[in-house]
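ugh ok fine here u go
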Amino acid sequence: MNNKKINNRLNANIKNIYNNKNMNANMNANMNANMNAKNINTNNYIENMGTQPGNFLSYNILIIVAVILIIILCVYYLYTRYTKTLEEYKENVKIARKIGECPDYWDTVDVNKCKNIHNIGKCAHGAVVDFNDKIYTNPDSGNVMKCNYAKNCDISWNNIDNLC
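structure:
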C-alpha cells in the first residue's frame, strides 16, 4: 500500500510537472506573441506618427504652433518699430523746441544781442538789446524773463512767449 501511495504521488507529481511545462510553454508562446504584436504596433505608431488623426504631432497642431509663432514675431517687430518711431518723434520735438536766440524777425548782432530792424512791437525800434544779462541767462528763470520781455513789448518769440 505504501508503494501504491508512493506510485500515485509520483504519477501525480509527474502529471503536474508535465502540465506546468506545457503551461509555461503556452505562457511563453503567448507572451512572445503579445510582445511581437506590441513591437509591431509600436513600430507602426512611430512610422505613422503625425499622419493619423488624433496623434500628438498631427499636422493641425503643427500648423497652429507655426501660426502662433508668426503672430508673436509680427507683434515683436511692430513693437520695436513703434518704439523706434516714438524715439524719433521725441528727438524731432526736441529739435523743433529749439529756442531762438532773439525774438522772431529780429536780427542777431552778437551772442544774445539782438536788433529790432523791422520795428515790430513796442520796444527797441532800431536799437540793440543785450540778453546776456543775468536775469536772461539764469537757467531757472531766464526763459521766463525773456517771455515777460516779449509780452511787455508785444512781440513773438518762438518757444519763449508761451512760457508765462
